[in-house]
Amino acid sequence: MSDAPPSLRARLVELAALFLRLGVTAFGGPAAHIAMMEDEVVARRQWLTRAEFLDLLGATNLIPGPNSTEMAIHVGHRRAGWAGLVVAGCAFIVPSALLVTALAWAYMRWGALPRSVALLDGVKPVVVAIVVQALWRLGRAVLHNWLDASVAVAAVAASLAGLHELAILALAGLVVALVRARPKPTAALILPFGGLVPAAAATSAAGAGLLPLFLVFLKIGSVLFGSGYVLLAFLRSDLVERYHWLTNDQLLDAISVGQLTPGPVSTTATFIGWMLHGAPGALVATVAMFLPAFIFVALSGPLVPRLRRSPLFGGILDGVNVASLALMATVSWQLGRAAVTSWWTAALVAASLLVLLRTRINSMWLILGGAAAGTLARLF
């Protein structure tokens, strides 16, 4: 039997199949998406070690853009080079963009969202269980000593106190690097990815033409850090307050679609593009929103293994990894508070977590089961 590695074509097909499926079934936002990716590419397929996965997760938190999409792009690059980078990223984005486009068409035709998108009450508790399981596995890989544990606790406290995510990541990296390098201090303290952010694109408020639309979403995709709530703040500042292209109600509807549909929350851009310019607007806004993520990963991805070999930057990366998991834990707590609203949702979290810890079931089946449970709960 041959032990030859799969061909490039076979690896690209594997990447396309995996990330197309995740693009259809990955509900719950970036933390849930990353948890599902860890299960697929580390636990099941062994494409990456847990340490490699954590390094890439740390790197995505240091560059702007949608984190889960950037993780998909990173995995694709590691698995199949530059072609894999494009295939994995596009495969993860396209299903969500198409679904959001269909909902945008229905919204513009009937003036409201179809009621069916609200029948996802059972999916949220399952997503919480998936994130908790990933935190357990990744935490065992990254928390090695009192320093790691102390930084994690401090990062959770800082996040709950409202400190910006990027500041938490930077401080955690600095603390771990400095403690490890106490005998030999150095002035080089942080990864230079922030310098890769291009200047904000200039645009005109003369009207929501395709070029201004492209420039607005290119700017947002180039400077956005944080969660879907941060995306809401960026969109409201530009599209509602500055250019008056949308009303507050329309923006909230667009954000709701991005959060309730599977795949990247940033496909909110697709919905807004359709509202403003139909199919061409949806395409232009989607491309502009995600293009910076491909560029940033292409620039930063090859640096991660080199930085890991440096004692200084390796310490920074370890600190960032610990803080990334702490932020993920904070998000899971917030998700849990929003998802567990009744006895049956609490029972669904517990049952899903038990199944995940005791079996190797694919999380996709649990999500489909949660959707069925939510539908039945609405009926009865």
Overall number of strands = 0
Q: Quick one: overall form?
A: globular
User: What's the Cα radius of gyration?
Assistant: 21 Å
Order of helices and strands: HHHHHHHHHHHHHHH
Strand residue percentage: under 5%
First CA to last CA: what distance?
A: 55 Å
Query: Pairing-aware structural class of the strands and helices?
Result: mainly alpha
Helix content range of the residues, please? over 70%
Number of helical regions = 15
Detail the poorly predicted runs: 184-206
Mean pLDDT score, rounded? 80
Report on the biggest sheet.
none
In a nutshell, what does this entry contain?
This protein is mostly helical. It has helices spanning 8-25, 30-44, 50-61, 67-110, 123-142, 146-160, 165-180, 210-223, 228-242, 248-260, 268-300, 303-309, 311-339, 343-358, 363-379. It starts with 7 loop residues before the first helix and ends with a helix.
Characteristics:
380 residues, mainly alpha, 15 helices, globular
